[in-house]
């Protein structure tokens, strides 16, 4: 019994195969998993609070005598029980109750209750408290804080508590191995693992509840550090296994490149040159490039991607470019066609919306190798797509794809039509700059390049926040801009995921604006339009035949219309800072001074205010990403909300960001041998999929 990592939960009393399946939903398969299933919070049932000392919003145990129990008819029927102790009286209120429950509250009986006091109509009340009848013998008063665990259907709090106690007893007999050499731990976190686990499952009375609630207790931090380390090690492992794979070397084809560059109306920025050289060096090697290209909106990533593509095509291989949306795929197709077709390169397109016949012919061109560059959405990686000597995959706006897709792609890329057992190189582009600490841990398997310079002549965007109560003034402003021959975007945001609801909201707004803004040519674009309709609208807007484009957030990424100099974003408080920055980047692409109006709904929360303020103050995507991390958490930045990717049991990337440098130091230490690394990864990542189902 000395290794709980190998002891199945069914070894515990009261756990059969059926219950084990329920526990599996909590990613608990072994007794060790159970020990790592930590409480969300704690209840202090170690002492009884006098009724007069209760505070609103605080959980407490009280004990007293029932003075009355009546059904009262207020706005909602409820059972009200008056409970009295030596210090005072309080009401217990039940909105749902049975006759038996009511009988339990006989006048004169003694009750012990646990619950949160809240302000009610008649002073403090306890809603639906847990109650226990006090007989001749007083009920046990626990000596430790009571843990509250994350649950799933079919498991009760009481049952998990019982199991945790059983697991702790086994811990005493040997149990869970210490995988981190003590000397590697920072002095403040030299907490033996077993002690940390014991403490967290049953903290002693008087433990610092506030500290535990915020997750910064040394026992919690000790575990968070280990978990972050395990994730980091697994990404390093991925990187290492990647370097054992072969890829086709793609040397520079100088004539082709010179031809390409000489046709551009501008020259590359210094940052574009530097980053292109980094990519060229990777591509010349015979192991797959895994590079993340970061650059603020408008920094010119597409051009860098085109240069990379030329290396694949110049070497006689195929290149795929994947975009997150159809609109963006379409725009890339147009850009790449305009740049590459004059060089005699053939560009194909694969999106979900192609007609059957078109699709067949594009698929045939891809399979025969007639198509040299293929642009598409994720439809690119469906099984019926057979590439012909695919050497490079370029992924745009990677935050929409997530780590999980990144892994999948690597596997699929290897499986589909590359020469022999070679794997294609990968270039991943993102306009959502990732703070350094996060990048180093969440993307430890990637190399990073940063375009930290915008093309010359860009005008800063003037951003203002205006309350929706002044909507009229904003409309006047749109009218004014249009009168001066400029174009504008009006972006509608909705919290709902549904494209049809979004489309509906945008349509309503477009109608409203059409009524208010005489003489302004308005068009509407949203995710529900057919691709050719979208294309028609976008082309008309680009050509200046439309003055005001009402859109959903589908225009967020990539769309490029230099004459558009005004953007209105409705309810910006609903979006993340990074997304807002992206949206705003649609204007300020030409030489005219541009403006962005954040038309917020009232009342605006304090955090909402702070976020809009941050957007007004900063024009640099990296600074905004740091603010976003501070105000909203890493989920927003890494796109985890959408894809549910990195799932930590204990660690919280935002709260524990300060542990990351430590994590990197430990990972680099020779004291951590292969076996320890393997075991750490297995402990934290084995039974739980690394990336939750998207
Ligand atoms: P992003 O990095 O947001 O994808 P794009 O690649 O769409 O940016 O580039 C934004 C605009 O800047 C495009 O119109 C592009 O043609 C232009 N551009 C790119 N590189 C340069 C450059 N070196 N000088 C001037 N304009 C450039
Ligand atoms: Mg782009």
UniProtKB/TrEMBL annotation:
GO terms for biological process: DNA recombination; DNA repair. Residues 282-451 form the Helicase ATP-binding domain. Its EC number is 5.6.2.4. GO terms for molecular function: 3'-5' DNA helicase activity; ATP binding; ATP hydrolysis activity; DNA binding. Signal peptide: none annotated. It holds the Pfam family RecG_dom3_C. It catalyses: Couples ATP hydrolysis with the unwinding of duplex DNA by translocating in the 3'-5' direction; ATP + H2O = ADP + phosphate + H(+). Coiled coil: none annotated. PROSITE patterns: HELICASE_ATP_BIND_1, HELICASE_CTER. It comes from the Bacteria. Keywords: ATP-binding, DNA damage, DNA recombination, DNA repair, DNA-binding, Helicase, Hydrolase, Isomerase, Nucleotide-binding. Residues 484-630 form the Helicase C-terminal domain. SUPFAM superfamilies: Nucleic acid-binding proteins (SSF50249), P-loop containing nucleoside triphosphate hydrolases (SSF52540). The keyword DNA-binding applies. Belongs to the helicase family. RecG subfamily. Plays a critical role in recombination and DNA repair. Helps process Holliday junction intermediates to mature products by catalyzing branch migration. Has replication fork regression activity, unwinds stalled or blocked replication forks to make a HJ that can be resolved. Has a DNA unwinding activity characteristic of a DNA helicase with 3'-5' polarity. This is ATP-dependent DNA helicase RecG.
